[in-house]
Amino acid sequence: MPASLLRRLATAGVAALALAATAPAVASADSILYLRGGDLWLVSSDAASSFQLTATGGWEYGSQSDDGSVIVASRERRLFVLNRNGDVVRELPTVIGSIWWQGPFEPQVSPDGSHVAYQYYTTTTGELQTGTAYADTDGSGQTHELHTGWGYPAWIDNEWLMHSDPPNFLSMDVIIRRLDQPNNQGDQWFRHDELELRDGDIRGTTMAFVGGKDGEYLPVYRFSGAPGENAPEYCYHRSGPSGRFEGPAYSPDGASLAWGEADGIWVGPVGDQSQGCQNPPAGADRLLIPGGRYPDWSGAAVPPARVVDTPREQPRETPRDQPRTTPRTTPRDEPRRAAPKPQLTVTKARLASVLKQGLAVKVRNGSGRVTLTATVSAATARKAGLGRRTVKVASGSATARAGSATVRLRFTKAAVKRLRRLPKVALTIQGAGTRTSATLTR
Q1: 3-333 is classed in which CATH architecture?
Q2: pLDDT(244) > 80
Q3: Distance between CA atoms of 222 and 231, rounded to whole angstroms?
Q4: pLDDT for the residue 144
Q5: Average per-residue pLDDT in the chain?
Q6: Using CB atoms within 10 A of its CB, is residue 153 exposed (0-12), middle (13-18) or buried (19+)?
Q7: Domain ranges of the chain
Q8: How far apart are CA 156 and CA 405, in angstroms?
Q9: Is the terminal CB of the chain with fewer CB neighbours within 10 Å at N or C?
């Protein structure tokens, strides 16, 4: 990694951790962008002020630059740039075109707001693959080479990103990669076999991830030097959420962390990790946004009031299908209603019969050729003798008709031989831009 990046990040890390040791856990001159009820909102970290950005519903994810001037959000397989008033500024070109592509997922805006990175899934090769793609937020259409393999992009600075959720059991959980680096290139950093890390964020010299087969852990790590240079130190983890953890996001000063659970968005202290791993104060976590999802924290304050300078959406009490009385002057910038998300339902069956005949999975709201894969966790793989990492054990595909399909997952020879010895097997099944789990018993 370039020496300039090392010096820049080392300086930033020391400053952030020094501030974290002296500053309050949260500051009111900031904002958390989040999703609730299909719309985007902004709220201050002390919950004293809030602002509704959209009112049309159907939004799926959002991210903001460090100064809050650029917001990028996803809706119905499309990416849009919004301003601080919630108006759609432009639609961005993406790789999501044919039915063989799913996304964009997890869009993340660079600190300076000039780029956005997002995750995708594709079955163009006949197998489910994931990766990260990029776009310029000014709408210039400049192309950036895809990155195949890891997803969940998290910006370190305006040039480097951290990715997690490895493509196979031979790969590290976390890698570091530069924007515009050729595909399949990057620095593999580390892995944590017991936790299977994914969906992380990084600030200064600490990181937080979602971990565990079902997202039941939220581990925090500290590291020295530049990201990717030295193996990090595991510090602690939160556990026992009301539902799985999702979307960790650091506060601008790195002193606090926001994350999602089933009941909403929580905020808690990170703890001072500057001199070594320290647990955060007990009992300091709090539910900030009931019903909220996917927090994204910036140093920009919540807007004081909406500035009405262009026609906006109809009030929420107006039926969504009623024609607008004040249409926008640029209808093409108005996002379309989001299509129903694909759903997977696993047909109940015994382990022995599934290994012989395959596992039937019903797909709803699918389109085109649907390809599904099934994996087992690293712990199960070790017990069965299939390796030390998460491994794919079955796959299958079918063509959706009228939005429905039944995919029969056929198990590999190695999986049939090894898994039949176990009393039960927990599977993670994913494809068509969604995932589910199933436990098979003898």
Answers
A1: 6 Propeller (2.120)
A2: yes
A3: 9
A4: 84
A5: 84
A6: buried
A7: 3-333, 343-441
A8: 41
A9: C
Percent of the chain's residues with pLDDT above 70: 85
* Both tokens assigned to 169: 């059991």
Contact present, 152 and 119 (Cβ < 8 Å): yes
The encoded tokens of residue 352 equal 């022995």
Can you tell me the mean pLDDT for 54-68? Answer: 95
| CA-wise closest residue to 362 among 314, 303, 409, 330 | 409
CB contact burial 201-240 (16+ within 10 A = b; e otherwise): bbbbbbbbbbbbbebbbbbbbbbeebbbbeebeebbbbee
The CA angle 65-67-71, to the nearest 5 degrees, is: 40
Looking at 164-227, list the stretches that DSSP marks H as alpha helix, in order from N- to C-terminal side: none
> What's the angle, vertex CA 374, arms to CA 383 and CA 154, rounded to 5?
95
Interacting residues of 323 by C-beta distance below 8 A, sequence separation 6+: none
Q: How far apart are CA 105 and CA 417, in angstroms?
A: 36
Q: Band of the pLDDT at 384, cuts 50, 70, 90? A: confident
Bridge partners (DSSP) of residue 298 are: 31
Rounded mean pLDDT, 256-272: 95
Give the pLDDT band of residue 190 (cuts 50, 70, 90). very high
d(CA 155, CA 163): 9
Greater confidence (440 vs 381) lies with 440
Give the C-alpha separation, 187 to 75, whole Å. 32
Cα-atom radius of gyration of the chain, to the nearest Å? 22
For 229-253, what is the mean pLDDT?
Answer: 92
- Over residues 123-150, the mean pLDDT reads 86
Q: Which tokens belong to 249?
A: 């996001």
163: nearest Cα among 155, 175, 147 = 175
What digits encode the pLDDT tens for the residues 332-369? Answer: 333 434 456 788 999 888 999 999 999 999 998 887 88
> How far apart are alpha carbons 439 and 425 in whole angstroms?
6
Instruction: Tell me what percent of the chain is helix, strand and coil, each rounded to the nearest 5.
Output: 10, 40, 50
| Secondary structure letter of residue 303 according to DSSP | P
Tell whether pTM > 0.90: no
Q: For residue 25, is pLDDT > 70? A: no
Nearest to 254 by CA among 221, 182, 185, 205: 205
Rounded to whole angstroms, how far apart are CA atoms 212 and 243?
12
Tokens of 166: 């490895």
From CA 187, how far away is CA 193, in angstroms rounded? Answer: 18
Q: Scan for tokens 């712990």, then name that residue.
A: 379
Structure tokens at 60: 């799926």
Max CA-CA distance within the chain?
67
